[in-house]
């Protein structure tokens, strides 16, 4: 019978001096690393990465806890805000003010270059060159030319836009009834947003006139927002502040209709593809969905409203005193042609996409902070609405 284990003689032959498996107890010289081995120190690197992740997670959890504490205090002070009450609309109005005023002011450098390139496409070859030239000629403050009227104008516009949208959406839904509101929800979004923007642009227009003139005149024609308003009214009367209202409506109403309707639709689609329901996701996750939906909606907004945006810039910068609106539009279009209506579009896509995403994120964060639901998501069917 053959033995199960090797004999002593066999083992000695295997581990003899001539064998390739010979072990040298005193030879601890490092051997060259095989390509299949992990690099030295990689496990230490992984450990450092894990430590950083753990610390970041701890900081994130601590930040979330602090935000929840602040939210609880704010809700305690504000009380339980009833949906569609005056307090609810006031909260939405203030949320819109924060969302639009801060974001538009933040991207003033982009807006400055966009407006100047719309008025004179040969002024700069690109954004980096533009900021470099402006910074050298006018200093860092020059890059933020027009931030004052931007802040005041878009704060007012955001307040009326978001607060008005919530009001008109509820009002129109009540007028047509639950079944029609659910069936024609996209039409409802379009009508509510158009109505809100119509009013919001009346508040925005004077500041937009000052902003465009400050950004397209070198050096700027006014030292600040209210100096600009007094300068325009002194030369052209109160009507001078509103000579760009019609093209502003032409730009902003389609923009806002696309902004709100596409946002609501995109957010609903996102939640429909995700497992579970909107209520299953945390507040931070819902706000992340709001930012994603807002950014995607912003790209569509930029494309739809860009020709009118170019015309607003041209009219505020080049319309002659006493010149009729139609005559000014015809003269400007003859000068720039159809292609000129698309000057600065790539810059505006980046600007508006970022703006819209951040606006929805700030707006919904403010609502959630006060204990209100975030905007968008699958609408309840009519049977649930009736119940």
Automatic annotation (TrEMBL):
Gene3D superfamilies the record matches: Mitochondrial carrier domain
InterPro entries in the record: MCP_dom_sf, MCP_transmembrane, SLC25A3/Pic2/Mir1-like
Keyword RNA-binding set for record: no
SUPFAM superfamilies associated with the record: Mitochondrial carrier
Entry's Gene Ontology BP terms: copper ion transmembrane transport; mitochondrial phosphate ion transmembrane transport
Keyword Manganese: no
GO terms of molecular function: phosphate transmembrane transporter activity
Entry superkingdom: Eukaryota
Solcar repeat positions: 87-171, 184-269, 285-369
Subcellular localization, as worded in the UniProt entry: Mitochondrion inner membrane
Topology within the bilayer: Multi-pass membrane protein
One Pfam family this sequence matches: Mito_carr
UniProt keyword terms in alphabetical order: Membrane, Mitochondrion, Mitochondrion inner membrane, Repeat, Transmembrane, Transmembrane helix, Transport
Cellular component terms (Gene Ontology): mitochondrial inner membrane
Function: Transport of phosphate groups from the cytosol to the mitochondrial matrix.
Protein name: Mitochondrial carrier
């Amino acid at each position: 019978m053959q033995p199960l284990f090797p004999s002593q003689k066999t083992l000695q032959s295997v581990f003899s001096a001539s064998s390739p498996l010979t072990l040298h107890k005193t030879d601890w010289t490092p051997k060259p690393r095989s390509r299949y081995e992990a690099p030295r120190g990689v496990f230490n690197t992984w450990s450092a990465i894990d430590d950083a992740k753990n610390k970041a997670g701890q900081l994130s959890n601590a930040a979330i806890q602090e935000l929840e504490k602040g939210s609880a205090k704010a809700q305690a002070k504000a009380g339980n805000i009833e949906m569609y009450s005056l307090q609810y609309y006031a909260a939405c109005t203030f949320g819109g003010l924060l969302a639009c005023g801060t974001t538009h002011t933040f991207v003033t450098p982009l807006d400055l270059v966009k407006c100047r390139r719309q008025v004179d496409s040969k002024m700069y070859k690109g954004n980096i060159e533009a900021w470099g030239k402006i910074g050298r000629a006018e200093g860092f403050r020059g890059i933020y030319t027009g931030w004052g009227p931007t802040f005041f104008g878009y704060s007012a516009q955001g307040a009326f836009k978001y607060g008005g949208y919530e009001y008109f959406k509820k009002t129109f839904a009540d007028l047509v009834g639950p079944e029609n509101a659910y069936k024609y929800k996209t039409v409802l979004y379009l009508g509510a947003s158009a109505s809100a923007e119509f009013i919001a642009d009346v508040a925005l227009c004077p500041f937009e006139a000052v902003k465009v003139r400050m950004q397209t005149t070198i050096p700027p024609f006014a030292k600040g927002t209210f100096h600009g308003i007094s300068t325009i009214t002194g030369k052209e009367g109160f009507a001078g502040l509103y000579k760009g209202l019609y093209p502003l409506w032409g730009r902003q109403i389609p923009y806002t209709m696309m902004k709100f309707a596409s946002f609501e639709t995109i957010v609903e689609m996102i939640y429909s593809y995700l497992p579970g329901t909107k209520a299953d996701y945390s507040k931070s996750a819902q706000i992340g969905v709001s930012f994603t939906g807002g950014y995607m909606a912003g790209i569509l907004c930029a494309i739809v409203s860009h020709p009118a945006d170019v015309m607003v810039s041209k009219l505020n910068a080049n319309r002659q005193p006493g010149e009729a609106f139609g005559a000014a539009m015809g003269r400007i279009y003859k000068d720039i042609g159809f292609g000129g209506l698309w000057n600065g579009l790539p810059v505006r896509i980046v600007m508006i996409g970022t703006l819209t995403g951040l606006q929805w994120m700030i707006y919904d964060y403010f609502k959630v902070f006060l204990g209100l639901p975030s905007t968008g998501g699958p609408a309840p069917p009519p049977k649930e609405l009736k119940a």
